C-alpha cells in the first residue's frame, strides 16, 4: 500500500498583477507565508485582497518504487488554478469544490517546487455573473468585502501501482430481506492492459455486523476507462433518517490487484436506501416522510475552517431541533459535513452553486461542474435531492425595493428568462443522466402559474419584503394557487443575536452602535425591519434581541402552522430560511455565528415537534366585538402511534378563563393534521388574550402559546 504525503502546512504566497507561467523570484524574502488549507484573506496582510495570487511549496520525495506512479491532488481551490511542478505545466482547473488530480510520475524529483497560480476575482456584474461559486460571490448573508480565494482543501501527493482508481460510484439497485444488490461504476486509469482483480470489503461503519469480502475478475484496457458491475450485500441494514430508524452506514473498500499486488484502493461511505419525491411528498425506502428542515449556509464564510467537530455540532443542533433535512443552500460544502450527515441520519437537499443570474457564456462550464458535483457526492446516503439553481431571478441586492428593482424581479419571476428556461433545464438533464436514483429540481423558487409552468418548491417572504406584502396575503394566494404550498423551502425574518454575541461585533452600548456599519458589513436591513416592528425603540441590545427574535419566531410559526395543517394535502416539506450565521451578522438565522441559539431556535424546535398542537390564528391585532375563529389542530409525524394528553386554555387580558378543555387522543402514525376544536370568540375586553395549548406524549410536555391582541375600533 502507498501512504499519501500531505502538503498541508506552511506555504509561500505572493499577490501579482500578472501570472508568469510558474516562474517567480527564488528569494524567500519576496514571499508571504500562510498555513494551508486557508483562504488568502485570513492572512493579516491580505484581509481585503481579491485578484491573482501565487502559491509556492517546496517539498522532498523519496525515490519511487519500481512501477510506481505518482499523483498530485488539489482537494479544492477558489476558483481557477494553473499548476506547475518543477517548471512543468500540469494543467489548469476551474471550480472550487471538486478535487483535481494530476499525474506527476515523470515531473517529480527528489526535491520539488510546486507553484499554483490562483485567481478568484470579485463579481461586479451581479445579474450577469461568471463564477460558479454560488453564495460565496453574491449573497445578502455574507460580508460584501469577503472574497473566498485560496487553497481551501488539502493538497496531497499520492502513489499507486500500474492502475489507479480515479472514482467509484455506488447505488442501490434492489433490496430484499436477505440481500441488497449494489451497482458500481469505477473509473480506472491503467498504464498497461491486462487482467486485474477487484477485491471488495464491506464493513459496517456505525452499527454492529459482519464484514463481507468478495473478489471479481476484471479485464482492463490501457488508459482511463469506466468499468461497471454489481455485487450483493448480505443481510442489508437500511439507512434511515434519525426520526425513522437507524442510519446504517457501510464502509465499502475497493482494491485493484495487478499481478497479485494491490495497485490502488478507494474507500467510500455508503447506505442501502431508496429515496423518491412523488408530487413533492418524500418516500424513504418506500415509507412516506414529512420533511422538516432549514436552509444551511456555508458553515463559515471561511469554509476552510470547518472541521469535522464543527460540522457534527451543526448536525446535532439540527437533529435536536427535530429536523430531518438540511438544504445546502446554493453551495457545495466541506466533505466533513456530508460524512456527519450520513452517520447522523439527516437528509440533504443539495443545491448546485448558482445564485440569482448568470451570463450565457457560463453554460458549458456549468454543465461540466454539475456533472462533477453529482459524481463527487454520489455515494452519500444523506444526499437525497439535487437542485440546479437557487432563484434564477434578477436580484442584485435584496434590500433594494425600488420600483425598477421590483419590475425586474417580477419580470424574471413570471416571464421567460434564459437562466431558468435554458440553462437550468440543461443542467437538470445533466444531473438526471448522471444519477437516475435521485429527484432533480430544475431551480428553487419557481411558482406554479396555471397555463405557464407547473412550478417547483416555493419561497415566501410575506411579513418581510414589500414585494410580498403583509402576512395576511399568503393564505388567499394559496387558496387560489394551492400547488404553491407543495414544498415551501424559504421564509423568515431577520433578528439580532443575543446581546453577548452582538457585543462581539458591535458596541455593547446600544447608543453607540454604528448602524450604518451593520447595514454595510453585517447584512442588516434596517428599513425593511422598521416596516414590521419598532426596533429603534429598543433601549438595550437585550431588548433589541428580544423584540426581533420574537417577531422572527412569529413569522416562522405562521408558515409552519399553516403548512403542517396542509401536511400531504399537498405539503411535503417545510424549510425556513435559515439555520445559522456564516459570519457575525443580523440575519434570518436561528443560530448565530457562534452557534448560540436565539429564542427563535427554541420556537422552531417547538413548531417542529413530532406531536404538535397548534391554532390557526389570523395575524395582526383583533377588533373588540368582532368574532374571532380559532381552529385547534393536532398532528403526529412519528413512525408509531402517539397517545397524547392535550389541554387548551383561553384567558382574557384580565386573566379571566374563557374556555378550557382537556382530551386524551391516540394519534395514528404519521397522520395528517386533524381538528380538535373550533372556538368562536367575540372579545369583550381589550388587551392581550392568551390561548395556551399544552400536550404530553412519551414523558415530554410541550406548550404552545398564542397571544391575541384585542384593540378598540
3D structure, described in words:
The structure is a single chain. Helix content is 18%, strand content 35%. The chain has 713 residues and is α+β, with helices and mostly antiparallel strands. Strands 27-26-25-24-23-30-29-28 form an eight-stranded parallel beta sheet. Helix 3 packs parallel to helix 5 (418-434). The model has no long low-confidence stretch (mean pLDDT 95).
Short description:
With 713 residues, this protein is an alpha+beta fold. The chain is built from eleven helices and 38 strands. Helix 1 (308-320) crosses helix 2.
Describe the protein's topology.
Layout: E1 5-6, E2 9-16, E3 32-36, E4 52-60, E5 69-74, E6 77-78, E7 80-85, E8 88-94, E9 100-103, E10 111-119, E11 150-151, E12 155-160, E13 163-175, E14 179-190, E15 194-204, E16 212-220, E17 223-234, E18 250-258, E19 261-270, E20 275-278, E21 281-284, E22 287-289, E23 291-296, H1 308-320, E24 325-328, H2 335-344, E25 347-351, H3 363-377, E26 383-387, H4 403-414, H5 418-434, E27 440-441, E28 458-459, H6 474-480, E29 487-490, H7 499-502, H8 515-521, H9 526-532, H10 541-565, E30 573-574, H11 599-607, E31 611-616, E32 622-623, E33 628-636, E34 642-651, E35 657-667, E36 674-681, E37 687-697, E38 700-711
Parallel strand pairs: 23-24, 23-30, 24-25, 25-26, 26-27, 28-29, 29-30, 32-38
Antiparallel strand pairs: 1-12, 2-3, 2-4, 4-10, 5-9, 5-12, 6-11, 7-8, 7-10, 13-14, 14-17, 15-16, 15-18, 18-19, 20-21, 21-22, 31-33, 33-36, 34-35, 34-37, 37-38
Amino acid at each position: 500500500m502507498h501512504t499519501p504525503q500531505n502538503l498541508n502546512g506552511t506555504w509561500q504566497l505572493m499577490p501579482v498583477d500578472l501570472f508568469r507561467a510558474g516562474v517567480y523570484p527564488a528569494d524567500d524574502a519576496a514571499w508571504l507565508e500562510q498555513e494551508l488549507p486557508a483562504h488568502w484573506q485570513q492572512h493579516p496582510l491580505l484581509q481585503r485582497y481579491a485578484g491573482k495570487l501565487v502559491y509556492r511549496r517546496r517539498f522532498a520525495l523519496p525515490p519511487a518504487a519500481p512501477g510506481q506512479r505518482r499523483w498530485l491532488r488539489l482537494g479544492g481551490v477558489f476558483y481557477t488554478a494553473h499548476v506547475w511542478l518543477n517548471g512543468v505545466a500540469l494543467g489548469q482547473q476551474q471550480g472550487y469544490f471538486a478535487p483535481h488530480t494530476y499525474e506527476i510520475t515523470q515531473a517529480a524529483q527528489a526535491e520539488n517546487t510546486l507553484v499554483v497560480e490562483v485567481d478568484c476575482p470579485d463579481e461586479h456584474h451581479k445579474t450577469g455573473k461568471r463564477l460558479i461559486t454560488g453564495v460565496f460571490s453574491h449573497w445578502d448573508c455574507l460580508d460584501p468585502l469577503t472574497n473566498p480565494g485560496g487553497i481551501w482543501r488539502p493538497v496531497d501527493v499520492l502513489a499507486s501501482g500500474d492502475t489507479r482508481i480515479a472514482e467509484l460510484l455506488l447505488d442501490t439497485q434492489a433490496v430484499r430481506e436477505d440481500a441488497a444488490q449494489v451497482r458500481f461504476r469505477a473509473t480506472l486509469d491503467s498504464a498497461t492492459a491486462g487482467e486485474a482483480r477487484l477485491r471488495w470489503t464491506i464493513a459496517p461503519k456505525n452499527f454492529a455486523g459482519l464484514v463481507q469480502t468478495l473478489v471479481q475478475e476484471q479485464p482492463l484496457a490501457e488508459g482511463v476507462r469506466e468499468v461497471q458491475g454489481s455485487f450483493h450485500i448480505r443481510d442489508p441494514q437500511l439507512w434511515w433518517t434519525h426520526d425513522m430508524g437507524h442510519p446504517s452506514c457501510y464502509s465499502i473498500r475497493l482494491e485493484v490487484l495487478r499481478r497479485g499486488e494491490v495497485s490502488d484502493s478507494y474507500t467510500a461511505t455508503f447506505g442501502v436506501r431508496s429515496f423518491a419525491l412523488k408530487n413533492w411528498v418524500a418516500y424513504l425506502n418506500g415509507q412516506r416522510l414529512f420533511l422538516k428542515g432549514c436552509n444551511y449556509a456555508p458553515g463559515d464564510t471561511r469554509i476552510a475552517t470547518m472541521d469535522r467537530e464543527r460540522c457534527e455540532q451543526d448536525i446535532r443542533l439540527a437533529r435536536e431541533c427535530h429536523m430531518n433535512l438540511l438544504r445546502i443552500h446554493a453551495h457545495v460544502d466541506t466533505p466533513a459535513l456530508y460524512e456527519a450527515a450520513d452517520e447522523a441520519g439527516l437528509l440533504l437537499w443539495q443545491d448546485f452553486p448558482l445564485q440569482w443570474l448568470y451570463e450565457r457564456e457560463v453554460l458549458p462550464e456549468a454543465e461540466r461542474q454539475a456533472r462533477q458535483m453529482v459524481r463527487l457526492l454520489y455515494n452519500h446516503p444523506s444526499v437525497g435531492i439535487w437542485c440546479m439553481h437557487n432563484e434564477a431571478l434578477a436580484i442584485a441586492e435584496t434590500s433594494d425595493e425600488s420600483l425598477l428593482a421590483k419590475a425586474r424581479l417580477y419580470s424574471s419571476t413570471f416571464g421567460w428568462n434564459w437562466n431558468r428556461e435554458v440553462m437550468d433545464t440543461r443542467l437538470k438533464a445533466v444531473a438526471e443522466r448522471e444519477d437516475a436514483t435521485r429527484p432533480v429540481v430544475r431551480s428553487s423558487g419557481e411558482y406554479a402559474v396555471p397555463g405557464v409552468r407547473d412550478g417547483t418548491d416555493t419561497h415566501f417572504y410575506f411579513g418581510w419584503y414589500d414585494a410580498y406584502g403583509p402576512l395576511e396575503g399568503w393564505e388567499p394566494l394559496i387558496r387560489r394557487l394551492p400547488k404553491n404550498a407543495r414544498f415551501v423551502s424559504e421564509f423568515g425574518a431577520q433578528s439580532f443575536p443575543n446581546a453577548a454575541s452582538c457585543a462581539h461585533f458591535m458596541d455593547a452600548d446600544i447608543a453607540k452602535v454604528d448602524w450604518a456599519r451593520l447595514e454595510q458589513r453585517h447584512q442588516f436591513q434596517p428599513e425593511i425591519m422598521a416596516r414590521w416592528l419598532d426596533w429603534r425603540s429598543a433601549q438595550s441590545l437585550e431588548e433589541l434581541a428580544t423584540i426581533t427574535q420574537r417577531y422572527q419566531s412569529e413569522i416562522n410559526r405562521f408558515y409552519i402552522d399553516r403548512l403542517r395543517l396542509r401536511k400531504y394535502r399537498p405539503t411535503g416539506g417545510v424549510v425556513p430560511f435559515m439555520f445559522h450565521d456564516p459570519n457575525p451578522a443580523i440575519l434570518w438565522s436561528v443560530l448565530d455565528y457562534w452557534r448560540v441559539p436565539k429564542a427563535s431556535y427554541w420556537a422552531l424546535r417547538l413548531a417542529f415537534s413530532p406531536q404538535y398542537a397548534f391554532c390557526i390564528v389570523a395575524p395582526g391585532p383583533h377588533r373588540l366585538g368582532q368574532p374571532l375563529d380559532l381552529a385547534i389542530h393536532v398532528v403526529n409525524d412519528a413512525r408509531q402511534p402517539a397517545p397524547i394528553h392535550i389541554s387548551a386554555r383561553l384567558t382574557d387580558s384580565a386573566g379571566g378563563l374563557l374556555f378550557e378543555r382537556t382530551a386524551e387522543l391516540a394519534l395514528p402514525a404519521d397522520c395528517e393534521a386533524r381538528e380538535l376544536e373550533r372556538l368562536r370568540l367575540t372579545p369583550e375586553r381589550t388587551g392581550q388574550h392568551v390561548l395556551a395549548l399544552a400536550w404530553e406524549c412519551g414523558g415530554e410536555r410541550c406548550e404552545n402559546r398564542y397571544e391575541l391582541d384585542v384593540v378598540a375600533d
